[in-house]
């Protein structure tokens, strides 16, 4: 087996597809990052064939479990976000152990989130929006992409800071692409989603935007600079950024994970990939989190941070 792994590593990946599994539906923010990254990775390894495969459901845990159990041959990798750190705090039974069942291949980008509402919402500033939410406690709903998704985590933290009398009804979807369609159509009232998905909808006037989730406003972004941060609106310490990373099943040969990490690091320096991210308010990782060991350390620290935040927000957890 060692010989074949070694031989395989020499020709890896060849033209055999490398499936980048996205644990949410197509067209959403995680899918967006994956498609842009697949294009950048293909450029780094001539003849390679990085393809995106959507495996949605259960807040991203179905897709993550699928990769944890996949053959460790370098032809199935997972592109996932903060949910890798959040799900252990939210699921009693999980099909994977974040720190044990994956090889960490490096981090990709940091993406802010925006608090947005359906176009019919009778509010234009964050203050009006917050007052409207309070005045209609228990009557409104908030969409997300399942327990442990970024949109769920954001909604949880925001509502616990809101301390509104009743939590909003939460409406789960297979991803925030279908959730966005429902919001634009007025079927749901509110959502917290990543700027990679919301920027074009805000710019197009199809949804209302009220605030960003980063500590500071995105004051240099042509579309997002008009919105305050939740911290500015009085939610002290509210500072939520969604990070994305790449993972392979545990036991994937080191020569293969090195090939993938090398290609990722080059992709992170690809001007087109950087520009695509920046146009959507996202920032490509430029620090040492692109190293597998630092990636793993970062996720381990995030797991502790998120567990504390979720425990504190407890009563709003689904
Ligand atoms: C999430 O809310 O976790 C994801 O952004 C959903 C998605 O990528 O569709």
TrEMBL record:
One protein family per Pfam: TctC
UniProt keyword annotations, A-Z: Signal
InterPro entries recorded: BUG (IPR005064), Bug_dom1 (IPR042100)
SUPFAM superfamilies assigned to the protein according to its UniProt record, in alphabetical order: Periplasmic binding protein-like II
Keyword Signal attributed: yes
Residue ranges of the TM segments: none
Protein origin, superkingdom: Bacteria
UniProt record similarity statement: Belongs to the UPF0065 (bug) family.
Name under which the protein is recorded: ABC transporter substrate-binding protein
Organism listed in the record: Limnohabitans planktonicus II-D5
Species classification: Bacteria, Pseudomonadati, Pseudomonadota, Betaproteobacteria, Burkholderiales
């Amino acid at each position: 087996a060692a010989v074949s792994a070694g031989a395989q590593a020499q020709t890896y990946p060849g033209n055999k597809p490398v499936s980048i599994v996205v644990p949410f539906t197509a067209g959403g923010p995680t899918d967006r990052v994956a498609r842009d990254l697949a294009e950048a990775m293909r450029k780094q390894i001539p003849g390679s064939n990085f393809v995106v495969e959507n495996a949605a459901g259960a807040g991203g845990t179905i897709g993550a479990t699928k990769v944890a159990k996949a053959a460790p041959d370098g032809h199935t990798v997972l592109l996932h976000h903060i949910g890798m750190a959040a799900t252990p705090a939210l699921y009693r039974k999980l099909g994977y152990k974040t720190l044990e069942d994956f090889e960490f291949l490096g981090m990709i980008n940091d993406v802010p989130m925006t608090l947005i509402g359906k176009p019919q919402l009778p509010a234009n500033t964050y203050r009006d929006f917050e007052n409207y939410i309070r005045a209609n406690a228990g009557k409104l709903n908030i969409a997300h992409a399942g327990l442990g998704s970024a949109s769920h985590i954001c909604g949880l933290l925001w509502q616990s800071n809101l301390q509104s009398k009743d939590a909003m009804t939460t409406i789960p979807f297979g991803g925030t692409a279908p959730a966005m369609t429902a919001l634009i159509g007025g079927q749901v009232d509110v959502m917290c989603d990543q700027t990679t998905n919301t920027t074009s909808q805000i710019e197009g006037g199809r949804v209302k935007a009220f605030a960003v989730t980063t500590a500071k406003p995105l004051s240099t972004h042509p579309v997002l600079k008009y919105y305050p941060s939740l911290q500015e609106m009085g939610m002290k310490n509210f500072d939520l950024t969604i990070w994305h990373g790449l993972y392979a099943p545990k036991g994937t040969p080191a020569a293969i994970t090195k090939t993938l990490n090398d290609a990722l690091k080059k992709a992170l320096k690809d001007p087109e990939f950087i520009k695509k991210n920046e146009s959507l308010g996202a920032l490509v990782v430029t620090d040492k989190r692109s190293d597998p060991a630092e990636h793993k350390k970062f996720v381990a620290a995030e797991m502790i941070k998120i567990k504390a935040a979720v425990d504190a927000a407890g009563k709003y957890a689904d």
